[in-house]
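W.,

You were right to be curious about this one. When I first looked at the sequence I had no strong expectations either way, so I just let the prediction run and decided to look at it fresh. Below is the sequence, 335 residues in total, followed by the output.
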Amino acid sequence: MTRLARRIQQAQAADAARFDPEQHFLELALRGRTARKARAHLRRMEPVVVFTPRWSGVGRFMEELALDLAVGEPAVGCRTVGFQALQGRPLAECWQFVHHLFAQLGQRGWTPPAPTSIADRRGFQWAIEQALEDAHREAPHRVALLAHGAEFLPVELLEDMTNAWRDYAERHADARRATLLLAGSASAPWLHIGDAPRVELADFGEAEAAAAIVGQAGPVPVRHLEQVARFSGGVPAAVERLGAAARTSGGLPTRREDLVAALGPLGDEMRGAVDIVAAHDHLADRLQDLLSGEPLPLAREVDEPLVMAGLARTVRTPAGDATALRAPAIATLVG
């Protein structure tokens, strides 16, 4: 082979290595990016805090994340749980429930809790530390607790639980075998685990939303699928409802009013959020400004309540952070 031919062959091989036909999809896969970031930290046995916007489908996200961690390399065995049921429960009952969760790390199935007595915060923190040590010594593989709904836990319990993990992490700084992911509402900025990274659970990108709908509904015309995915805004709960409706009826709705009807109870929740915002003039005016779908420069005083309500999202633009309507479906509900 001549020198020129060899140079041409090397250049072609380099171009092929640089081009990945899946790259465009990966760059638009916003929710997948969040999952990859969380997996990377958890595989290194680092804790993660995830903030979850309203209607973000966090339970399904956790289950899929746990599956990815279990089948990948290195494998991590996960226990997933939601804390919503603990809202308003006595502190002692919350202690027992959370302690049992940690005691289950690395165990098969869900065994009945062993009798324990936790009398105060100090005893609770000690019990969590012991459970982490037991998992560290006895679990056949590395383990992680993936928990959402952290905003429903008493603040003092969260503090003691994260302190227990911190003490465990310091004792095993170079060889941790257990870690923790806590997910809470975007309205809980106080949620943290020491200096652990804090990420927001993104909605689906348009391509991700389309793929999720097809996964439920089966093959549909591409142009129609794109319209429905765009209508959903990638809001996970909306994508789930539209896909389920398409599976039941045998096809995707075509008219906007039919799409809204397909949202079912979720549409009622969104309409309720819009009605609450409409009762506040400054928020209603801001929502009207966002209906065009174009991002507007961030105005925290009015944008943060809209984000907490699930009606808007923060986006990055070349000019800096901005605010955009979360989904065209919301514009339809505003009318």
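Here's what jumped out at me. The chain has 15 helices and eight strands. And, maybe more interesting for your project: The CA atoms of residues 99 and 169 lie 18 Å apart.

Coffee later to discuss?

I.
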